């Protein structure tokens, strides 16, 4: 039966070219609208084999295991997804450039073994080990779907889409079998249990990424801001205890997503059940492969470069996520407060203030406020509750706006949030909950009114004991972006660029010995210094006596000079007036693209001659 269906699929695919020929004729007869030019850039950041040898070695090994050729390009993308695509012609019969796309959220949220499972599945779509026809059908379905979606002329669209539906209906069982083969390959590479856990994890990562974009990033773009440390913020969200519980619930029971007629994947629950059934009882349950970002050389540097490319030309102003949370929270409250108070004015409910609204509730005239809300077609009980929730939200926003305006409270970033309102003592305040309780009790409304207008900006005893000018601990570095050595000046021999600032290292006794041996054995002293520095965690290295760490926000200026005869220098000035004058030559060793990173973090504070 499968052989007969395969023969029919090939025949139907051949017939698609006849329809395509008529489609081309129809496009010539019927006037066409001019099509907008599209960019040839597939998007993302290209990861070359020279820059990422370990990644390419592992991908080539996975491709060999899958029985298919390795991709021609690997691109890092800002998506919670991974894919392998090909530029095809003749509806998938002729193949061209093959690209692998790696989503940063997957690298941050998966283990290295789980990433192997994902990539093996994607490469399995192009495998001809089990069935040459399966890979052809996969490519053809993608190509036909792309053509059908892009047609606009009725003469071309109707016959081709009718034919496409027939082709997809006939090849659906073959495509499903091909997906199952890709899952088996994933299990072969990473183990059935790891492959199953990966399928459970992917929907949770997709949900987390969607939450990050919709609740945090879009909150800033609405006000012309975009977050700095774009991908680090996502890692922070996934580390929040409340978010971890939420993601764990999604992984335990992954939701089935609605699929299009062109999707060939079997139901997710069925795929997970099949893989878990394959897992041996004694298969290792603990994954010790480490985070998938370890597959990259200098992941922070690559994430930074992708961040710059993602927002290039957006016109958005970079800002820390904490600042965006403060601004977005305050402005959202202000907008809802304006809506509520304007509605009171338009309906002659005066005074149109928070105090006026609470006075109405306290005097038993709640219905006057509830009538501001349009009623839906629900039961009286449901209608009343719905109105209460709307008024509570708007009144709560008006209370919050008043507190913020009078410096009695402020909004702070919350990864469980996206933001939270705290009073001046740092205690959480939930005006919406307070307003909801007031709607049900005139006495509570009177107390709330008094609290809103009598709240004083007092801090607790512990906070008062803390001097206002007490120094705050600078953020310690989390990862390296690049390095330069040897440099001369002020005793410094190594310059390190980290995700949170610059680090300048003076050589220890063992460093001097190691670099001396490197010189004797025809090695590179600069390379040895860099290796010795990068072998230690950045936070640990920054805490040593030989290191000077300066956070980005404490750097006043960095001036880079390209001198003659291959000589270079850089003057670094901090906000406290401390500075360093560094010198080096073209013979110095360089790891990563350090100056683009410095330019990214410092902006106008970085100058070049």
TrEMBL record:
Sorted alphabetically, the keyword list is: Cell membrane, Hydrolase, Membrane, Metal-binding, Metalloprotease, Protease, Transmembrane, Transmembrane helix, Zinc
Molecular function via GO? metal ion binding; metalloendopeptidase activity
Q: Where is the Peptidase M48 domain positioned along the sequence?
A: 51-278
A GO-annotated cellular component: plasma membrane
Q: Which cofactor does it need?
A: Zn(2+)
Q: How does it sit in the membrane?
A: Multi-pass membrane protein
Q: Which GO terms describe its biological process?
A: proteolysis
Source taxon at top rank: Bacteria
Offer one Pfam family short name for this entry.
Answer: Peptidase_M48
Q: Where in the cell is it found?
A: Cell membrane
Protein name stated in the entry: M48 family metalloprotease
């Amino acid at each position: 039966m499968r052989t007969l269906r395969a023969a029919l699929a090939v025949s139907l695919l051949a017939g698609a070219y006849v329809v395509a020929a008529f489609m081309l004729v129809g496009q010539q007869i019927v006037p066409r609208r001019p099509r907008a030019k599209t960019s040839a850039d597939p998007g993302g950041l290209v990861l070359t084999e020279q820059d990422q040898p370990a990644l390419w070695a592992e991908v080539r090994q996975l491709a060999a295991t899958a029985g298919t050729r390795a991709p021609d390009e690997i691109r890092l993308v800002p998506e919670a997804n991974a894919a392998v695509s090909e530029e095809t012609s003749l509806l998938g019969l002729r193949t061209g450039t093959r690209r692998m796309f790696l989503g940063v959220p997957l690298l941050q949220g998966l283990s290295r073994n789980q990433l192997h499972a994902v990539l093996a599945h994607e490469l399995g779509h192009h495998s001809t080990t089990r069935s040459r026809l399966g890979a052809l059908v996969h490519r053809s379905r993608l190509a036909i779907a792309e053509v059908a979606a892009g047609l606009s002329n009725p003469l071309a669209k109707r016959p081709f889409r009718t034919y496409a539906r027939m082709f997809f209906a006939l090849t659906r069982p073959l495509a499903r079998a091909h997906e199952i083969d890709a899952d088996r390959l994933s299990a072969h590479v990473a183990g059935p249990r790891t492959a199953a856990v990966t399928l459970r994890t992917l929907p949770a990562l997709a949900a987390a990424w969607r939450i990050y974009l919709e609740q945090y990033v879009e909150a800033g773009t609405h006000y012309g801001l975009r977050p700095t440390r774009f991908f680090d913020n996502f890692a922070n969200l996934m580390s929040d205890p409340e978010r971890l519980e939420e993601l764990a619930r999604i992984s335990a029971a992954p939701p089935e997503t609605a699929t299009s007629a062109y999707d060939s994947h079997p139901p997710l629950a069925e795929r997970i059940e099949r893989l878990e059934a394959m897992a041996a009882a004694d298969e290792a349950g603990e994954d010790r492969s480490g985070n998938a970002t370890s597959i990259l050389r200098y992941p922070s540097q690559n994430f930074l470069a992708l961040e710059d490319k993602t927002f290039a030309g957006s016109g958005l102003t970079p800002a820390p996520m904490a600042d965006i949370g403060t601004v977005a929270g305050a402005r959202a409250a202000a907008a809802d407060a304006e809506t509520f108070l304007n509605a009171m004015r338009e309906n002659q409910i005066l005074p149109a203030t928070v105090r006026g609204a609470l006075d109405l509730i306290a005097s038993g005239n709640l219905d006057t406020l509830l009538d501001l809300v349009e009623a839906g077609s629900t039961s009286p009980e449901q209608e009343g509750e719905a109105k209460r929730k709307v008024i509570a939200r708007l009144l709560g926003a008006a209370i919050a706006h008043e507190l913020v305006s009078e410096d009695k409270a402020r909004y702070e970033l919350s990864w469980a949030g996206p933001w939270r309102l705290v009073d001046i003592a740092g205690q959480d305040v939930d005006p919406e909950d307070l307003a909801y309780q007031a709607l049900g009790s005139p006495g509570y409304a009177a107390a709330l009114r008094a609290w809103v207008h009598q709240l004083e900006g007092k801090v607790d005893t512990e906070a008062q004991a803390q001097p206002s000018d007490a120094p705050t601990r600078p953020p310690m570095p989390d990862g390296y972006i690049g390095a330069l050595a040897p440099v001369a000046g002020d005793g410094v021999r190594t310059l390190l660029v980290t995700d949170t600032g610059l680090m300048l290292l003076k050589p220890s006794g063992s460093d001097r010995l190691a670099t001396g041996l490197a010189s004797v054995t025809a090695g590179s002293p600069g390379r040895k210094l860099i290796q010795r520095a990068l072998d230690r965690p950045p936070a640990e290295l920054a805490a040593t006596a030989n290191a000077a760490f300066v956070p980005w926000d404490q750097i006043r200026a960095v001036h880079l000079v390209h001198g003659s005869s291959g000589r270079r220098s850089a003057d670094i000035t901090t906000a406290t007036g401390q500075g360093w004058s560094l010198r080096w030559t073209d013979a110095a060793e360089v790891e990563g693209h350090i100056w683009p990173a410095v330019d990214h973090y410092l902006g106008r504070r970085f100058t070049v001659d």
